[in-house]
Amino acid sequence: MSKRSNVVVRRTSMRVVPVAAAALACGLAVSACGTTQLGAAAIAGGNRISTATLTSEVANLNSAYSSDKAKGISPQRPTGQEPQQVLTWLLLFRVYNRMASQHGISVTTADSERALNAYAAEAKQSNVTLQQYWSAGAALPPDLLPQLGTAAAIQEMMILQLNGGKAPTTTAQESAVDSSLSHQQCLAAKSLGISVNPQYGEYNYASFEVVPAPSSLAAEPSPSPSPSGVVTTPPC
Q1: In the chain, what are the domain boundaries?
Q2: pTM (two decimals)
Q3: Residue 196 near residue 29, CB atoms below 8 Å
């Protein structure tokens, strides 16, 4: 593979943010429904994502970044927020699995591989590998690609289900499906009762992402509103 400089890898259509790409009556915000378990980065559906798992995945991402940079490919996501970015993915996969369960969707290995092959074709157009496309473009640790394939397959099946069994063909249909998919993602996330360890931030329902929590050093004596654009309680 030839050496490239300043290669721009654009994020794909995976809905990490509300139907714009991604990652949920308890909030995902900091301990809205109680404290997280000891050693947990987050709790979803009563099961924890351990801090050890998160630390390991962040290390995997940073290793991929080093490899990408050696080939002239720079990360496209903000640096210094890798724990929040990776935790967003780990939560997103659990949300999509819950959404699949709620809607009777079953994904096979072939379905997942087909989704990844489609992404590989997109990556080829950018002259990068599938791994580079997602690590540099969307802060996804390479070892999570199989889970990405499953989530992408779930998403496509949900789109068909929400549009009467066929793919959207008009802008109006796409807009309606996007809105419905975002709503279903929110309901699935809400049903998991997710809480995020304050060490890693809080969950933003407006973007389905874990975001850094406001600095306590600048906190007012009384509780202040969430930062502009951060929605910490489910709007669904």
Answers
A1: 40-213
A2: 0.81
A3: yes
